[in-house]
Amino acid sequence: MVNGQRMVKPAEVTPLNAHVYRVFNVFDRLYQFGATDYFARFQGVDEGYRIFSEALRGLTTEQVNLGIRRVEGLENRKLVFPEARAFFNLCIWNDQEFSEQLWRYEEKN
After folding, report:
1. 3-state secondary structure (DSSP) of residue 80
2. For 78-97, what is each residue's pLDDT tens digit?
3. What is the C-alpha to C-alpha distance for residues 5 and 13, in angstroms, rounded to an integer?
4. Planar angle of CA 17, 21, 25, nearest 5 degrees
């Protein structure tokens, strides 16, 4: 207690991964239903940042850049951005794994 008032410890806040805002900007630019719009409507943008921050933890800048390049290079991308775990996979898969899983990220004709 301080001056007769009970001190409340602030909640621990985990800092966001530095790449989260960049990834959201790419999704917002490329997808009809971008990440910011989606999370603003359904879970809150801050929650979206937290989800993606958690998914990107431990990735290098080069890995995140690879994931972004892969999203940007999709010929016939789906209307909705990839969810956090799917984007994580895009960042870490080797080229063979990516080519085998490409169907998950593109619209069927």
Report:
1. strand
2. 988 999 999 999 999 999 99
3. 24
4. 150
Buried b (16+ CB within 10 A) or exposed e, 27-49: beeebeebbbbbbeeeeeeeebb
How far, in Å, CA of 16 to CA of 50, rounded? 7
Rounded distance between C-alpha atoms, residue 47 and residue 28, angstroms: 16
Q: Are 28 and 22 in contact (CB under 8 A)?
A: no
- Residue 64 contacts residue 91 (beta carbons within 8 Å): yes
Instruction: Please name the residue that has the structure tokens 């016939």.
Output: 76
Length of the chain: 109
Q: Which residue positions in the chain have pLDDT lower than 50?
A: 1-2, 7-13
Q: Which of 83, 78, 86 is nearest to 30 (CA)?
A: 78
Select from 29, 30, 51, 31 the least CA-distant residue to 39.
51
Please state the domain extents for the chain.
Answer: 20-104
